[in-house]
Specification:
By secondary structure, the protein is α+β, with helices and mostly antiparallel strands. The chain has one domain. It contains two helices and eight strands. Strands 2-5-6-7-1-8 form a six-stranded antiparallel beta sheet, with helices on one face. Strands 3-4 form a two-stranded antiparallel sheet.
Amino acid sequence: MFGLVSSSKEHKLAWALNKYLRIRLIKRKDLYFDFLNKGRLVISNYLHCTDCTTFRLLRNKSLDLSTLKKPFLAPDIKEYDYLLQINGEALENWQEITSVFRLVPLIQYVKKFDPNTLQFKENLMF
């Protein structure tokens, strides 16, 4: 999983990632996480799937006004605006993908994370 810092709207970032990574992220239904009597998160969700690889672009901060203290999908890395999950064969070339991120003008910073080390990793299981 990659954390991306970008001030761009998610549709513009998805378009740029499509162009530079030669994929086709498509807007899917927003993801809803309801936390018992505490509030909910509404997370923007873009998806690209092939037989061998899955890319999922997620906005880290809730789209909805939330009553949660930390309205983030991954609160322990809240400084990242977007999360890009990559599963399958493409992940084997993560260094190459990281170098492509540096070419995308809409991305200010990127960092690779092991999702298993995150405190709120259960939020990232789909």
